[in-house]
Amino acid sequence: MEKNEIRRKIKAMRSMLLESERIAAAEEVFAQLEKSAAFIMANHILMYHSLPDELSTHGFLKKWRDKKHFYLPRVNGVNLDILPYDESRLELGAFHIEEPTGNNTIDPENIELIVVPAVAYDRSGNRLGRGKGFYDRLLKTTKATKIGVGYEFQMVDEIPVEPHDVKMDMVITQNSCVVIKERRKK
Q: In this structure, how many other beta carbons lie within 10 angstroms of the beta carbon of residue 185?
């Protein structure tokens, strides 16, 4: 299946989810994330501030904000800056995503874990984003553990891979946790 076909299929499936299904899936996925060694050991974690069609991160961020150091991405041209998460310092940014404000950007090398959104994943750790390449550019700059999260239907048989694509180390859905054996070396 081609990338745009996968995007259309997943978008249609997301639109059919009931609110109760969205909530239950987010609770299950983030409960699994909390049990992972990568999360337990990490103190500096890059999350994403979810859009309505993505697995919601809002409750998870609130639950852990006093115990872990969370960061969010902010679009800066074709790249992502990383800034500390502070719920009181978010504003609508690029692509109608709430982004952190301020100038206190963090070096990606200081991040230990990145929780990565996607349109789809496969069991080899490949990720299909929305097509702009923001996360791939960022992920190439860090040795942080990369964990993709999503709904079970976002796991597809195979994602077409390009040279710039960066694999996940683990993918968590409400029904599975796939650990990819092959870690990217720097």
A: 5
